[in-house]
Request: fold
Amino acid sequence: MRLLEFQVKEIFNEYGIPVPKALLVENLSALDTDAALIGDKAVIKAQVPMGGRGKAGGIKIGRTNQEIKSHTSTLLGSKLKEYLVSMVLIEELLEVSAEYYLAIITNDQMGLPEIIFGTLGGVEIEQTAEQFPDAIHRKMIDPLYGVQPYEISDLLVSSVIPDRLWPQMNGIIQNLYKIYWETDSQLAEINPLVVTSSGELIAADGKMIIDDNALFRQKSLAEKRTMQSYEKTAEDAHINYIPLSGDIGMMGTGAGMAMANLDQVAHFGGNPANFMDVGPAINIHGVRAGMELLLSRADLKAILISGYTGSRLDIFAQDVVDALKDHPEFNIPIVIRLQGRNEEIGRKIFEENPFKNIYFCDDFDKAAELAVRLSRQVIV
Amino acid sequence: MSILVNKDTCLIIQGITGKYGEFYCQANGEYGTKIVGGTSPGKGGQEVHGIPVYNSLKEAQRRTRIDASIVWVPGPFAKIAVFEAIDAEIGLIICPVDGIPVKDSMLIMRKLKDSKSILIGPNTPGIITPGQFVAGFMPPHAFSPGPVGIASRSGTLTYQIGSLLTKAGVGQSTSLGIGGDPIVGFNFIQALQEFEADTDTKIIILICEIGGSQEEMAADFIKKNISKPVLCFIGGRMAQNGTRMGHAGAIISGKYGSFESKLKAFKDADVPVAELLTELPDMVINMLNRKR
Reply:
């Protein structure tokens, strides 16, 4: 779960990390009453959960009250990628003398938290890593004990930042680590961490990604979540669904299989309309909900249900049959290749409930090939 | 021979009275796995499919030998169950649990570091030594005894390749899933070491996936340390940058963990990569014939 910038900054503020003076605006009239709080020079930022906001036109600078107003009015209600801008953050324009990068991430390979400090901020860290690897300093942290002051010193010694910034930097790193740990973050990032002309460190932008598996114990963060309706359906059913741009609806058992199915369809020249993993486990509602998601799409030319499961194909088959019964209008070819535990019982369920336009196939490759071929047929 | 588990391995089921514990107690037991007990706090003295239930692992250890444990406890509580297994000094801990918070996984790995236990998973489909032992989701009829060792990041693709090999008349020594989570215990390198040392394993298959750097490290390790032939498949060829395809581990950002980077690593190590999973059985058969 990715938090919006203003939500991240609320958390920064709560943990004592300095952020710019700001005003969150949902409609223009709020500007008339509160604009004076910011001053007459401001940065206006669309609140959408995506990277590259600046490039996409979601960040603007206003140097007069009039400009601030007109940028705000342009951004509110506009669309960036698939996101509707319903909130805008208006912040004081900082006088910047240097920009750094600071993040706490989970290092998967080591299974440890890691501090990443970059002396070049404001650009994506991947880019810095490629072009200026010497500008990046890293430190693994032992999660049992948390970050220690001497570890921060080690990090700062190698990074040659001005000595006078050390006390502030030390505090910010300690607090960012605390945020990372206490909120179950996968990433807590300040980019850029700005040094102002008066020598203050301020978090000009922030990004946090919360571990979805931990939302059960991060209730106040979970409440901040905004979901599209398909995301909600998928989450409630414990399945994984990602819409893509093609025309072949996909359902697979297990993430690896679901991914391999996409690769196969692409190999045979088809275009998957989605990624869907209904889970390898006994997931009673997963298949049913997954079918609903596919059957409700109007842009499909074929569906491929392909899997090998150690779970129960009898339950799986019944769910597919029930979903199809609910949608008698559905008229697109469906290719089914299901193997694994209780395969025979599953097949029997399909045999007892015949539908037109369903193709059974026992071969991993041929099923994908058939779905691709059927997706190209013109349905009259 | 085989790796990690065989017909004599005594397995205990943590969470035996839950939905999964109960179902796979029966399914794995039917195959012949030596299940010596289960745990469920407060339910000691009961039985599940004829298997005795204990309140804790320590209590069970006073009654029976335990070589391995499988954790069938929901994600939010799995950390505690794995902690218990580590503290009880269980040699092999198998953790099929999906949805463990990453922070919990970090703490599990930290505790594991100071122990002698091996942890397979989290989010593993389990492990099977055909004809002898199975624990986890693995559908046993997909597998048969033979010379191929399989280590995989995906459960269902393991069943698929097992079944394709079995149909082609080629069996397996041991097949295991290392787990789909970004942080896992037993990894490709350890699996390669075990298979290299196992006299029954003649060929090793790695079922790989985009994301992370396990494959790159495994490729490097193969180049330096593995004498047996290795074949592999990489899932996620067409995944877009930054998209998370189900497995939390299967996310690529920038060049890190991409399909191309893994393909190159294996090419550099002279490890053949199948474009389609279905090509693997023929590749295996050709290689076995060549060895003779």
Notes: The longest helix of chain B spans residues 19-31. The domain at 139-291 of chain B is CATH 3.40.50.261 (Rossmann fold). Chain B touches chain A through 65 residues (CB under 8 Å). Residues 246-255 of chain B have pLDDT under 50 and may be disordered.
